[in-house]
Amino acid sequence: MSVILPLFIAGAVLLAAEALIPGAIAGIIGAILLIIGSVYAFHHYGSGGGWLAVGGAATLVATSLFFEFYLLPRTRWGKRFFLNKAIDTTSHVAPSRGDALIGQSGVAESPLMPTGVIVIAGRSYEAFSRDGAIGKGETVQVVGVDTFRLIVSKHSSHA
Q: Residue 124 pairs with which residues in a beta bridge?
């Protein structure tokens, strides 16, 4: 019994630490310690002691999961660790919206080397320069659309 208790305590501490330490390594090591403690209990105390240890390990895991995913996100301190907002925007131009922009002029909000950001009618879009580098503030014209961005070229006054 003297080895099982320290293994279970260390396993429980590592499972609890998993809520604060990213990467799942603490949780995996904690689970391994609980398994080793259970195997030790089966080996030294027979079936009865082994199943008692497995029950204790399962209770520790369930308690840790309850704490990590139910209680912690509801605390003021825990709310800083969990994402509670959904992102409802897209990272690319919808093809129908992009096709409507072909022929329109915009301004390079960032340098396009050859990819950057342009502004058309107050909205920012990711753009790819067909003409290579375009400096910030230069006027561009939308000449096409691909899946994720507008295709632009330098705007010429005699085009």
A: 119
